[in-house]
Amino acid sequence: MLQKIIVLLVLATGSLAPACAFGQDTLRTFIFGHSLINHEFQVNPTPSQETSVPHWFHFLTQAAGDRYEVAGQYGFLGGHANLPPIAQWGFDSVPAAWDDLNETFAEANFDNILLTPANFVQWQPPYANYPNDNQSPLDYTRTIFNWTNQQEDSLNLYVYENWPDMGGFLSNGFPPTQAEWTSYNNYLNADFHDWFVEYHDSLMLAFPNSCVRMIPAGPAISSLLATPPYNQIAIDTLYEDDAPHGRPTIYFLAALVTYMAMHEEPAPANHQAPGIIDPLITNNYTDVVNHLWTFLNNYNLPSGQSRVFCNNSVPLDISTTDPSTLPDPDEVLDLAVYPSPTTGQLSIQTSLNQYDIIVTDLQGRIVRTAAENPIRVDLTQVPAGIYFVRVRDLETGRVETQKVMKQ
Fold it and tell me: Over the stretch 238-249, which tens digit does the pLDDT of each residue have?
């Protein structure tokens, strides 16, 4: 959980005074982001930074009696990997977490990192190199997380799952028709989401000693907006273009998801959202919080471990479980991988009924996936070296890994 932090200021008289209220929890975040976290140049200007996650996160934290400090920068993963970052973002209300002109990143003592990839690169796997580049989204993310971990111990590393570009679903421009809106959300919750799951799985494998979690802002908001009465909200009051940049309501909902993911508790019940937020959200605030909180609690790995929470991972509840149905911890999964070494074609066999299989390199990057049985995996185009084949039983969550060599 968050540490209690009391900051003391030396006044001109030489006396000491507290900079923030006694007992406040302070959360300090650096964001490697873009405009689906902080939309600064709105088509429909707002009084302050109401089209940003940090803006609403601050007021939620304030309602809880705590303190939030943030720094961040714009860019996509390739640019973010040009380290060190800069403290580019400033907000009217949110305290700054880092003075990059007078202190190093390490001296800022961040608690967590929030990072998001572009929302238009999901047409190819996260391990595939960007066009005209020799680096993939996973390569750049590993560079960023490795660097931040060297600067600060015990950082929580969060991936912000945003929402996809809408332009490809529109035939006559923004806003979408109802059919186009349905197609867009189907993609958001299927292929687009699957890309983030594969991306997140690879990062958890690459950083086994860190808390790497995903904040599913896009799917959580989509789930809420598909539910009455929220499905009555006009789309062009939620988004202002086909990027799609949100209007204040979208960033408020994204901040709710992000706040609850990081704090691992429901958003404060006493928060009063202003009139700039759609009234269906403000008038049903408790229901909105409950819906999003339930979504986050159900957003788990097949093993039952939370994809979202670092501390409140859901364990297997054995109090009402027949012990005879629990998996034997010494049982070995039925997995055959051959030939090894291989020059390209790899055969994988398992007797499991429900499973997934990934092939990773030594850095934990996923290079291939498979789901058919018998499975043929083509490693012809991957470099020679050592790889790991991991099979996961989707019924029990048990995992087995075998090493193979590609010549």
Answer: 999 999 999 999
Q: What is the value of pTM for the model shown?
A: 0.75
**Which residues fall within 8 angstroms of residue 284, CB to CB, at 6 or more apart?**
229, 230
The 3-class secondary structure across the chain, one letter per residue, is CCCECCCEEECCCCCEEECCCCCCEEEEEEEEECCCCECCCCCCCCCCCCCEHHHHHHHHHHHCCCEEEEEEEECCHHHHCCCCCCCCCCCCCCCECCCCCCCCCHHHCCCEEEECCCCCCCCCCCCCCCCCCCCCHHHHHHHHHHHHHHHCCCCEEEEECCCCCCHHHCCCCCCCCHHHHHHHHHHHCCHHHHHHHHHHHHHHHHCCCCEEEEECHHHHHHHHHCCCCHHHCCHHHHECCCCCCECHHHHHHHHHHHHHHHHCCCCCCCCCCCCCCCHHHHCCHHHHHHHHHHHHHCCECCCCCECCCCCCCCCCCCCCCCHHHCCCCCCCCCEEEECCCECCEEEEEECCCCEEEEEECCCCCEEEEECCCCEEEECCCCCCEEEEEEEEECCCCCEEEEEEEEC
Question: The tokens 């070995």 sit on which residue?
Answer: 332
Rounded to the nearest 5 degrees, what angle is found at the Cα of 168, between the Cα atoms of 122 and 45? 95
Tokens describing residue 152: 């600060």
- pLDDT tens for residues 272-294? 989 999 999 999 999 999 999 99
